[in-house]
Design goal:
Elements lengths: L2 E3 L13 H12 L5 E7 L7 H16 L3 E6 H13 L10 H13 L9 E2 L4 E8 H12 L1 E3 L1
């Protein structure tokens, strides 16, 4: 058995009452103990188009099937939820027509708080999937606890 120790944890520089430390703790709380990573998607088509959305949502389902993935969420999930609420649907469903997509885009773009803002850049044909990975929890546990017996 070996002992694995971290030599430096930058978070330790900040006291518990600082905004940085509290922000980090909030990230940990929201993501159930893992640090999320972005999957960067670049397409030649409109990233909000139904064809791209379908491909990405299928990819999300594949990610969720991996035992190491805790959670995956994208702008497409957000739009599917908004569309379902607007249409009185029983479950989230991504809109199949560009008119509905453009309506959601316009409304969310004008909002004071737009949770999808960092997940899509339509003009640049870029979208992101936010993925919480279980291995990040292990690494984070090592950093926060400063040692792990292997």
């Amino acid at each position: 058995m070996r002992n694995l120790r971290t030599e430096f944890n930058q978070l330790m520089i900040y006291r518990d009452f600082t905004e940085v430390h509290q922000g980090f703790q909030k990230i940990m709380e929201v993501n159930r103990g893992s640090i999320p990573v972005f999957v960067y998607l670049e397409t030649e088509e409109d990233p909000l188009g139904p064809e791209v959305a379908s491909t990405v949502l299928n990819f999300e389902q594949e990610l969720m099937g991996d035992e190491q993935v805790e959670n995956a969420i994208s702008v497409y999930d957000f739009y599917a939820t908004i569309f379902a609420l607007n249409q009185n649907l029983d479950h989230p469903q991504y809109p199949e027509n560009i008119f509905a997509i453009n309506m959601i885009y316009a409304i969310s773009s004008e909002a004071d708080y737009n949770p999808a803002e960092n997940l899509v850049h339509r003009e640049e044909n870029i979208a992101r999937i936010l993925v919480s990975h279980r291995i990040c929890k292990i690494i984070l546990w090592i950093i926060l606890n400063r040692e792990l017996l292997l």
